[in-house]
Amino acid sequence: MNSYRNCWEIKYVFVNTTTCPIPSNFSIMNGQLHDKSVHYRESSSSGRFCYRRCSSKRSSLKRSWTVYLVLLAGIPAQGQKIQNTGHVDYFKTTLIPSPVSPTPTTSTTTTPGSPPQSPIKPVVNHHRCDNSRCTAPVPTKLNVHLVPHTHDDVGWLKTVDQYYYGSQSHHKVAGVHRCCGQSTGGSSTSSTAFFWKWWRDQSEEHRTQVRALVNEGRLEFISGGWVMHDEANTHYQSIIDQMTWGHRRLQDMIGPCVVPTIGWQIDPFGHSRESAHLSAMFGFDGLFFARLDYQDKKLRSAEQRMEFIWQGSGDVGRSANIWTHVMAGPLYGPPTGFDWEGDGEPIIDDPESDDYNVNRIVDKFLDYVSNYSANYATNQLFIPMAHFHPIQSANNWFTNMDKLIRYVNGRQRNGSNINVFYSTPTCYLSAVHQSNNTLTTKADDFFPYASDGNTYWTGYYTSRPALKRYERVGNNFLQACKQLDVLAGMGGVYDKEVTALREWQAVMQHHDAITGTEKQHVASDYALKLAKSIAGCERVVNRAVAKLAAKSMANRTVQSLPEQLFCQQLNVSACEWTESLNTSLAVTVYNPYGQPVRHILRLPITNRSVQVLDPTGAAVNQTYVFPIPGPVLSLNERDSEALEELVFEAPVPALGFVTYTLKLQDADDSPIAPVVRKVVGDFSVQTPGFDVFFDRNGRLQALRFRDSGRNVSLRQEFAYYSSHSGTNSGPDRASGAYIFLPEPKEFATDNVIAPADCNYRAQVVESPVLTEVHHYIQKYLSQVIRIDHRSDTIEIDYTCGPIPVADESGKEIVFRWQTDLNTGGVFYTDSNGRQTMRRRRDYRPTYKLNVTQPVSGNYYPVNNWIAIWDEVAGLQLTMLNDRAQGGTGFREGQIELMVHRRILHDDGIGVDEPLDEPGVDGNGLTIRGRFWLQLATVAAATELHRELANRLMMEPVVTFNRLAKGQAPHYYKKHRTNYTALYNPLPRNIHLLTLERWANRTLLLRLEHFYQWNESREWSAPARVELRDVFREFVVYDAVETTLSATENILTTRRLQFRYTNANNHLSQAFNQTHRFEPKRHELNTTDLSVIINPMEIRTFIVRIKPKYYCNM
């Protein structure tokens, strides 16, 4: 149908050949249905005509029925005349046409049948494919849009495959492979992951029928991401990737007309401002969600503000606005009593039956609609019709909804103003848009989310910390894998391996995956699948690095490429290749970041007699051997005999690699061993800008600026909250995977682990370039503080677990940094690693907060950083982390981050399992993680943490290549040991967000400006990039800019615009409305392929390239 995309769509029409002859202007010739009038005028303004021949379909129908494909301007209502060609009965179809008879009209029914439906008209959808037909609302009535939809958890109580195939049904009945087995009326689905699995099993005939349903507007894809992503723990790069891949797969299956226009985030447990911003950049016209804080919901419902304009960014202006709808009902399900796979009573409309219940059910529905409509300001009402997981019995659902529509509308003859019909989110939004209502705005976010006064959904910010870290590792490796696949010109040979990691990394963004709210066996399955897909991408990196390293084309054959090896246990200081070194080992460090980096390599060794050669073959003088901390050596999962790590620095070029060589040598030339001494008193360590002070127990005490002599008190504390073990009855909620609820007494921080509580031990490891403070705190808790003498950023490497629970009390471990900064209870966190959000103790910008939980009610998601600052002193303390965590700054001058949780009770939300991870030996989970501490002036702080956060998300990938004895000189001769793919490093405020192979021999390229408009005097300015001159070995000769998910040309995209007031509302007008930036957007210069990128912009391009040696440059 692509060649007829602007023509009237094909509709299935069943013709009763007994009572209704074939329309006079159609005839059957040679088995083809011919339209005698030759053509219908197309819907565009070009004035062209289209004509199509349509095959007659007979095989699957009873002889008394014939189905024809008829060109129509819309789906006719039942009994409606069509173009004066005869009387046609229209009946809803399943995906596979089946024999259907018209439902006879029962004249004796006490409730009259429905009047004819309003004429069908297409949604005004600007340039987009006209693939939806909506029932026109009646202006004088309350229009009730019944929206059947599916909600598919890509893992939760069961694994992905168990849900898809319907196994393990004692957990939850859900055979997702049946999700599209029947689709009548209108229905919507959101997760592409399951649909893709289902699609691969279908015949081409069945696929064609699905495409017809989509083009008819009867099956609608909303959001269309691979999953419905979480919004608290996800990084914006991963959100973009999973949404882009979902949209790509939809277009692969259905065609270009399937581009989603609706954001559908009905199940995540809180909503971020950056996710709203991304939704606008995906080209969505509107956003629907269901979970809203109970206090916020009460106020919005009373003021009819459940629909509003969410200002997704203060940096890019109105283009970040998105119309938003909050569902006021029971989450995203049908009204109580109308769930026809749950509590729903079937509608019995046989008047002869003793169980006849039409009037009672209609009355109940009308009462519900009347009350529900009070939440909204227009005469359009959105009612979702589904609940958890896909509809299992479509026939039962649609039969009862058909009856509900018929009998509710029948009441109109008795004066009812309720008009009910099937709809979709797109149709509903179109109707609301046509109402031209003026909306209020919102400019912050919806964190934290509480469903009642004791149920703050802030525990999942930290739950399953190992899985959260593994997701971050997976994203890092995916970006490197995609880049190297392009740079090495692999030509699609490894698409299967790249795609596997794409898809499992996308699955990890699901709102019951990265959140840690799944069952333990599901979490294990996620980790296993991610590990397997990372291993697949290792094959890509192996071939790509080897190919790029070969100096001559002749040495780039598969047979001659050296094998690159990987060490997946470097996180526990173990590596087979460095520990078994007996000759030489080439160590290649690939930097996926668009700026040069200084990378500190820490390689476990069993023999100190190792010499390090740099990329030129010269000896590296500053190499050191550091002891591996004792708590790391005792990790049960560690399979290693190494007691020490070889430490040296490797400068790596932007988007490139360097190769160092390790070779055995005489003991006299061994790396320098640092001085190791026990801590017996207070001491200090110097950085370029600070003196760092420690007490006699090895705890941080203060930082003193070396230039001004100013002291800032900075004390580190370790503590835990005892998890409340409630009954989950009424207000007595337990802490669990979702919920963070400490025992009430612990607002006063009773459980601080002080030196008097245990045998604190500390030792100092000193070298000329690096000082480490090894700090043993408890049997389950230790850390190493690393101070690089050439950097003012302090690294904290911690080990935590197993958390002791012998006292039968769950515990939630936190790290605190207490300063003497005056913060007034104000602190700052990132939004999905991008925007900075202002937080304030016991405060919400858009409603007056009644404080019921002073700790968990002040917790927020921290993806990359959390900061406090003293406006008078002009100082900022920033903590960066290596995974998503929960954190707060509500205590004066303090930052707190939760690192680990072990809880012995379920919180009653649905997972039905305590958050008690077994670890490798069944005795509890041990994790290892890192923080980075930065203290700076407010003016300099943003530049420090912005650039470090990007480097941490794009850490170098290290590979190893074993060399035979004496082969090292030969390796230097035959291989490149210093390589960059860029002509020059990108501007310091520009990040290469995406580089990957795309469809039809194109590349997908994203560049982003990662500063906000008011953060830096130097780097908050627009930056210019010439796409032609970015890369060294190939040239970009053609580029098309698209929406963020690479689905539509940005120049032709038109989103719906709504009227809204300038004020957010009476509580928040002053909070976020005074400094909204409205930049001028600069389009791609198609002459020199240059683009000017404004602060916080992400620019997405589909580009074509050719090798540089084909170019006259």
Automatic annotation (TrEMBL):
Record key words, sorted: Disulfide bond, Glycoprotein, Glycosidase, Hydrolase, Metal-binding, Zinc
A Pfam family reported for this protein in Swiss-Prot or TrEMBL: Glyco_hydro38C2
GO biological process, one term: mannose metabolic process
Reaction(s) catalysed (UniProt annotation): Hydrolysis of terminal, non-reducing alpha-D-mannose residues in alpha-D-mannosides
Domain Glycoside hydrolase family 38 central: 455-530
GO cellular component terms listed in the entry, alphabetical order: lysosome
EC number: 3.2.1.-
Name by which UniProt lists this protein: Alpha-mannosidase
